[in-house]
UniProtKB/TrEMBL annotation:
Annotated ranges, domain NAD-dependent epimerase/dehydratase: 6-244
CDD domains: FR_SDR_e
Organism field: Dendrobium nobile (Orchid)
Pfam families per the UniProt record, alphabetical: Epimerase (PF01370)
Record's protein name: NAD-dependent epimerase/dehydratase domain-containing protein
InterPro entries cross-referenced by the UniProt entry: Epimerase_deHydtase, NAD(P)-bd_dom_sf, NAD(P)_dehydrat-like
Alphabetical keyword list: Oxidoreductase
Gene Ontology MF, one: oxidoreductase activity, acting on the CH-OH group of donors, NAD or NADP as acceptor
Signal peptide: none
Length: 320
């Protein structure tokens, strides 16, 4: 076994690209899975420092077991990041095929391959949406990892992405309990910050939409967000910390949408910004204290916002 070789699924995506960059900079060899290694949208990976020496790309769809197993075999650890993230206001025509099967069957496939390959530790990127959609949690109590989102509630309101992530994380824990696989799940809140990939991912599009303003109203709810670089740090931290176990909420800042916009306006006064809101919705705050006890540090709120906007400007996604 190659002691410092790890696999990252969905390596070309937003979070995974920053994780691959971090792993390479820390001296890891990385087997990255992508659906099409020749697609130019994965070209940024080949340009990362140390990529020519230590990054190998494998063609793998998470619905196809054999491709996953080839990428995972010979690794010490696996970071399962690949999972479809639809646009936040988009409508899914076939939720089962578009999000639920790739999230759920994909996670089961990855974990089975990890068991078959004798992987030492698996980190599954889940989401805070598996935590906070819990109507039974007391409104005045900060939410921690003991909270699980209610599947019936998500079905009722057709929150298919939330359901896909909750089914996948639940299945991951069932597999780990049955097999003894060393599993850790990380549940990031909304992720912002600069992109390494050329295509715009769903959470970056959300921030761009807030800045540009959309005609449909947005909920003035309490948003938790976290910098993409801090998510990559968290993933490596829980992988390397021997004492890490269980679930980890990964949320750095909480702010109502109005306050987020006020902060952005104070730095960039000339954008249109979202004008149209529905009622303020009181919600529970999320605690990342468990992650912080492992030594997780986060960037300041302003740094994430400024680095995001400057990236959008440089990439031509937002006028200066
Ligand atoms: N961004 C956020 O705010 C946020 C918050 C919490 C959790 N997360 C989680 O973080 C992970 C990464 O999300 P992201 O924000 O980085 O989004 P992203 O850039 O859209 O990445 C999603 C990745 O999943 C891959 N994928 C989707 N379906 C696949 C399939 N059937 N087989 C193989 N790969 C597949 C995509 O590959 P292709 O490029 O081939 O489509 C892409 O690499 C996801 O698990 C997501 O649920 C994201």
């Amino acid at each position: 076994m190659d002691a410092r070789r790890v696999c990252v699924t969905g390596a070309g995506g937003y979070i995974a690209s920053w994780l691959v960059k971090l792993l390479l900079s820390e001296g890891y060899k990385v087997n990255g899975t992508v659906r099409d290694p020749s697609d130019e949208k994965n070209g940024h990976l080949k340009k990362l420092d140390m990529a020519s020496e230590n990054l190998q790309l494998y063609k793998a769809d998470v619905l196809q077991y054999d491709g996953l197993l080839s990428a995972i075999q010979g690794c010490e650890g696996v970071f399962h990041v690949a999972s479809p993230v639809p646009e936040f206001h988009g409508v899914l025509i076939n939720p089962e095929a578009e999000v639920i099967a790739p999230a759920l069957t994909g996670t089961i496939n990855v974990l089975k391959a990890c068991s078959e390959a004798g992987i030492k530790r698996v980190i599954v990127v889940s989401s805070s949406v598996t935590v906070f959609m819990n109507s039974k949690w007391p409104k005045d109590k900060v939410m921690d990892e003991s909270s699980w989102s209610e599947q019936d509630l998500m079905r009722k309101i057709e929150h298919w992405y939330g359901l896909s992530k909750t089914l996948a994380e639940r299945a991951a824990w069932e597999h780990a309990e049955k097999t003894g696989l060393n599993l850790i799940t990380v549940c990031p809140s909304m992720v912002y910050g600069p992109q390494l990939q050329a295509t715009v991912n769903a959470s970056s599009l959300m921030l761009l939409t807030i800045v540009k303003g959309a005609s449909e109203p947005m909920k003035n709810k309490l948003w938790s967000f976290v910098d993409v670089r801090d998510v990559a740090d968290a993933l490596l931290l829980v992988y390397e910390a021997a004492e890490a176990s269980g679930r980890y909420i990964c949320a750095a800042h909480s702010t109502y949408l109005h306050d987020l916009i006020s902060k952005l306006k104070s730095i960039y006064p000339n954008y249109k910004y979202q004008q149209n809101f529905t009622e303020l919705q009181p919600e529970c705050r999320l605690s990342s204290d468990k992650l912080k006890t492992l030594g997780w540090k986060t960037r300041a709120f302003e740094e994430t916002l400024i680095d995001s906007i400057e990236f959008y400007q440089q990439a031509g996604l937002l006028e200066k």
